[in-house]
Write a structure and sequence with these properties.
Layout lengths: L2 H25 L3 H8 L6 H24 L3 H20 L4 H6 L1 H14 L12 H5 L1
């Protein structure tokens, strides 16, 4: 296996681990995270818990997907979601260093997306070049 394939696998495993971990925390209804919803207009605990559960399921599904096949559109979502959830920390009153510490949450999926290759068409956001030409 060449070095580029090894690096892609390391990033796939890292991205999957990050999203699986966050997904499990969300499924467990992490109290701090439920509280953050109120700061953005969702004060009903039941609604916040349901939204957090849904987000947890999405994170877990995406984490597994990246291990099976690194779909560019999923990676793009992971970049934005990783950035938002990192940025959320100082927005809810945590130190800015909590944001800095989480740069890898969006940096790893971005690096994997760039290694796989930025798509040249809309279809490539979902399908590989090989799948498009078949």
């Amino acid at each position: 296996m060449d070095n580029l394939k090894i690096v892609k696998w390391v990033l796939r495993i890292a991205v999957a681990g990050e999203f699986l971990g966050h997904g499990v925390f969300a499924l467990q209804g992490k109290k701090d995270w439920i509280g953050w919803f109120a700061q953005f207009g969702i004060s009903d605990t039941g609604t916040a818990t349901q939204l957090l559960f849904l987000l947890g399921v999405i994170d877990i599904v995406l984490g597994i997907l990246i291990l099976i096949k690194p779909v560019r559109l999923a990676l793009l979502w992971m970049v934005f979601w990783g950035f938002w959830t990192a940025l959320l920390r100082p927005l809810v009153g945590m130190p800015v260093w909590d944001f800095v510490e989480r740069w890898a949450n969006w940096g790893a999926p971005l690096a994997l997306l760039l290694l796989i290759g930025w798509p040249k068409s809309v279809r490539e956001w979902i399908f590989d070049n090989e799948e498009i030409t078949v």
